[in-house]
Amino acid sequence: xxxxxQAGVAEPLRRTGRRRKPRDERRPKQQPRYHVxxxxxxxxxxxxxxxxxxxxxxYPRERGFQIANEVDTQGRAIVLTTTREHAELKRDQIHAFxxxxxxxxxxxxxxxxxxxxxxQG
Length: 121
Known about the structure:
Elements: H1 2-7, H2 23-26, E1 33-39, H3 46-57, H4 61-74, E2 76-83, H5 84-95, E3 112-116
Antiparallel strand pairs: 1-2, 1-3
């Protein structure tokens, strides 16, 4: 009977697993955000900007007009804030949008840049 009692005794378990990180550290980190900035020039009409905002960004006509007005009065407008990869895509789409058909001597598409959102991190 003594043999039977010893066979049933288990050795203490050793922890082999990793320690869990606190809940906050397990959340995926948010990617840095970037602004897509549209710059003013004298070669494009409000109609061109409004149409471009509708086609490239899906904005309603009123929002496209607001952006056109801001570009005209402020010299630039932030048209989107997003991840870097998406911002680069949208900037490139603006550059490829083409000439303004309402201006005879239009030299081509508008200019846009991207810049990181201030105060991240």
